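Figure 2 data, in text form.
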Amino acid sequence: MMGMWCPAEDDPAEEPIHFLAGKLHWINTDKLIQFILNCQDKDDGGIADRPGNVSDIFHTFFGICGLSMLGYFDSCEDKARFAAIKKIHPVFAIPDADIARLGLTAQIL
């Protein structure tokens, strides 16, 4: 199964991201948000790779990035609670404001 995600050595256009480009409509954002929220460790903090597993910094970071890119923090009723969480750039995985401040550019498919 993993072979389908491995790019052809001589064809960078076959990388996994190219298979997903333009397919955002395939994702049920509400269910993805709920999955990420279900992966939270409500006792010790952080986000795990799946519900019930131990959280780690990698999944916590990308879980927060995912929630940001899905608009979760913008759509919450209690926006003041999440005021410190800034919108994350999908390419650089740092706040959008820092992208502008640093003058970084990226092509987003």
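Caption note: Residues 1-5 have pLDDT under 50 and may be disordered.
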